[in-house]
Amino acid sequence: MSFDEVFSVIVIGAGHAGCEAAAASARLGVETALLTMNLDLIGQMSCNPAIGGIAKGHLVREIDALGGVMGRVIDRTGIQFRLLNRSRGPAVQSPRAQADRMRYRNEMRRTLEAVPGLQLRQGKVTEILALDGRVTGVALEDGRSFGARSIVLATGTFLNGLIHTGKRTYSGGRAGEPAALELSQSLKNLGFPVGRLKTGTPPRLDGRTIDWTAFEPQPGDRQPVPFSFATERVDVDQINCYVGYTTPELHDVIRGNIGESPLYSGQIRGIGPRYCPSIEDKVVKFSDKSRHQLFLEPEGHDTNEVYLNGFSTSLPAEMQQDLVRMIPGLEEVSIIRPGYAIEYDFIDPRELGPDLQTRRVAGLFNAGQINGTTGYEEAACQGLIAGINAALSIEKRDPFRLRREESYTGVLIQDLINQGVDEPYRIFTSRAEYRLALRYDNADQRLQKYGRDLGLVGEVDWDRFNARQDRRAKIAAALESTRFRRSDPQYAALANLLNSDLGDSISLSQLAKRSNVTSELVRSLLPFEFKSASQTDLEFCLADSLYEGYLSSYRATMERVYHHDALRIPGETHFGSISGLSNEVVERLEKRRPQTFGDARRIPGLTPAALSTLLVYLSAQQKQASV
Amino acid sequence: MSTIVALSTPPGRGAVAIVRLSGPLSFSIIERLLHNDSNLQPRTASLRKILKNESGELLDQVLITTFPGPRSFTGEDVVEISCHGSPAVIRQLLDLLLSCGARLAGPGEFTLRAVANGRMNLAQAEAVRDLINAQTEAAAKQAARQVNGELSSVLTPLKDRIIEVVVQLESALEFVEDDLPTVKTMALQETLAGVAAGVQRLVSSYKSGRLLSDGAKVAILGSPNVGKSSLFNELVRADRAIVTDKPGTTRDTLTETIDLKGIPLVLTDTAGLRETTDEIESMGIARTQRAMSDADLVLVVLDSAEPIGKAERELLSQTSNLRRLVVNNKWDLVGRSSVGSEGINVSARTGAGLEDLRLAILATLQAGANIDSSLLVTNARHYDVLVRVGAEVDIAIGALGDKLSEELILVPLHNALRLLGEITGETTTENILSEIFATFCIGK
């Protein structure tokens, strides 16, 4: 077959997964094309204009440490930054930012256009071309076809997308954009098990018609904490968001019209995310609540459009304006775009290996909502891993995977490929067993070396990282070596200040763990040369020492329970030949092809007896191999 | 790699039992046990005394053989301890080893380590695999029984209360932007205190259960010449003695193990203590208390023919909070008690009332166990898990009191759930998230 153009890697879809995939693949030196239906909507935020949040902000930091683009783009286009959970421990703090939606798109496009070897192409893919179980390229609606050795599928909500407002439905990938119908069929033809999920979005309002005085302003941080380790300072003008509430009268009206909602009429079968319930769900399932919180989020500096966060709905478009006008402060409001629900196809992520390549078709990688996740950050981290592995597969390099002990990205991918999804998957800190070790501020320490080894982290960033590590090591050493003994002149004043006995001798690092010791006090007690140490560096070291004890005892517990998890299962293992395993167990193992004992342990339905048998077999195999 | 310990001979009473340790700490644990006596020749059995931790009292005289890795059964440092086959001795020895840093081995874990370290080839492993299967299947069956049975019916509500607290704390830190009610620390502490008490009840039920199966210690106390020795001899003579003599038992006391209607009793006659003119006082308060606190039951022997003196009053008041029976000896001489109605009237000389005494001893020991008989923990592994759960819950209560950040309070709570999961089945993140979404309206 002759192709109009030939690339090594083609990325389909230019949302948050596609952008990371394309940038990573091209920067690894592989000729890459990013294919999208509309080049003007690269990096479009289809739902709320915000990036980060608890655990999601951690993901963005990880993407950044590995050399991805999301963190840098939001730092240049964010209009309200907040570090969440400031009152809690550093492990569960996380940055969040409102984005200027249009500027984010433009900045993402500018960033991608600056990547050497990355080609942007507009076109609608109708078919994945494959031969002998391996991808060869894609066919486009306009008659062209492109050749590729690896393909990253990042289709978002476009696969067979169906939009609902009230009883009306129409085909679409996002409001105003066509769905990818043929592509979905093409994937079914290749044998992929396709499921259906649902998500929703609220109406957008005209900011000029809002009575802002009826809402409580929610300012951002005065000192924005950026997402990227490369960003020194956020230079964008910052804005306020606003908080308001629904009323019992509004709830009554919604409940009275609940039959109009496709969610309750049985029209929508796809499963939506529980953590993004529609307003219909909120008033029905939590009918005892007299009000639900809403956020007014301005969409940017160059528009009056305002996002009504918390009011996701699929009630009839013509009814939405009347409903919204029942909210105090929105009596005169005009809706610019109505809210809607959308159903779309996803592919069972248990089809994937840890490199996000499908086992069914070699060279095909899936990333983002097609794998059943929700969220820009969840999509982006998968895009990055898929893009990296698509490029590595071209160069016949070993695939890249992250472990769940070292990253939220690893947690997310391992959960997806082992457990599949029943509803759109969102990351939470509680999904990470090593939550205390996976901090937003130490993502560089955890992952930057990988980015460097892969070739995604450049000289400048690498030097800056090493300088940070040096500074942190010096502060950590000073915290250990600075001690206060009963005989020291400072001791009495310190004990007095903290109103407790400090023992005969206490190090500054031990002292800092006390809940009433602030970082300012620690700074004042450090030797003179550290007085001007950066607050970020100091807090990093304090966090390390705060969690140190917990982590070492936790590691001991985990070692006790899961110390066989790292045991590798060779790719050629024929599970059927292990005597003692039931047919059902063999079938499950053959289907998932776990790569480590830890993967196998997480496969639902494997009995303790089956796992013991597998463990004995693997231990023996490993020993034989090493003799 | 942790150091594991298990009884490697069949459970129950036998002449000799072998307790086996494997792992990097095996040798240091045994040295600690022998108070740094490192003079053990590898692969040679050495006769050693093992003392109980605090009292310095002899636990047992044992044979110890060390097998340095990799030339051992598991390929790791292995220690084999051959002790006397009494369940009470085995239990105390295991307790000592656990307190020194070993943990109880899981089913087939020694074999697993042997395979992992290449001490067994595949064919051999295939043969033992069936054994492991059998064990884990038995464990699975047992677990299934417990799911519908007593232990689980008691543990599940405790687990649910921990989950309830976890849900509050996880929601608070995970959904900070949502309009959630603030966490009420006091209420959470109260809930957890209830859990801790429940766990503690189960833990103590194990001790009661063990009392019946492994033997109870009974100490005979009393002033000189009230007939302690006669009583002791009479009980030992009439009931079949399991071990006629325990060599090396402290020279100051006389101890015999008797079988009292199927329950082993370790009977200690404090009359064996060197008697002075005023025994109770010369024993010293510390010594009396040690004898008392070691015993599961004390028999305070009084002379019915003599009036109550200062020494007797002291002894009675010191033992008033213990599990105690007052024995009015020499009843045949007077036919009345010097301390009113309390006590069992016996005559060691004629044997009168001894059957009443036996029944009273049994009833008293069983009474303790019967309080919680519906939730008796008898399995050592369950006991081990529950002790750890109790400790984790206590840490969480402390962390709440110290106003630590939620992620730190959650560490011991997740540990507790993970431990409970070893009995009741795992609590997955999904369980907790479902609970969160059912409890709170989450989502902007």
What this model shows, in words?
The complex is a heterodimer of chains A (627) and B (444). Helices cover 37% and strands 18% of the residues of chain A. Chain A has 20 helices and 24 strands. In chain A, the strands form 6 sheets. In chain A, strands 16-17-18-19-15-20 form a 6-stranded antiparallel β-sheet, with helices on one face. Chain A is globular, with a radius of gyration of 26 Å. With 444 residues, chain B is of the alpha/beta class. In chain B, the strands form 2 sheets. A 7-stranded mixed β-sheet of chain B has the order 8-9-10-7-11-12-13, with helices on both faces. Chain B has a 6-stranded mixed β-sheet with strand order 3-4-5-2-1-6, with helices on one face. Residues 129-148, 240-252, 272-285 and 370-374 of chain B have low confidence and may be disordered. Chains A and B meet through α17 and α20 of A and α3, α4, α5, α13 and α14 of B.
Q: Summary?
A:
The complex is a heterodimer of chains A (627) and B (444). Chain A has 627 residues and is α+β, with helices and mostly antiparallel strands.
Task: Report the end-to-end length of chain B measured between terminal Cα atoms.
Answer: 46 Å
Unreliable spans of chain A are none
Mean pLDDT of chain B: 76
N-to-C series of helices and strands of chain B: EEHEEEHEHHHHEHEEEHEHEHEHHHH
Q: What is the gyration radius of chain B calculated from CA atoms? A: 26 Å
Strand fraction band of chain A? Answer: 15-25%
Structural class of the secondary structure composition of chain B?
alpha/beta
Number of E-state strands of chain B = 13
Query: Rough shape of chain B?
Result: flat
Low-confidence stretches of chain B: 129-148, 240-252, 272-285, 370-374
Question: What portion of residues of chain A is helical?
Answer: 25-40%
What is the CA–CA distance across the termini of chain A? 49 Å
User: What is the helix tally of chain A?
Assistant: 20
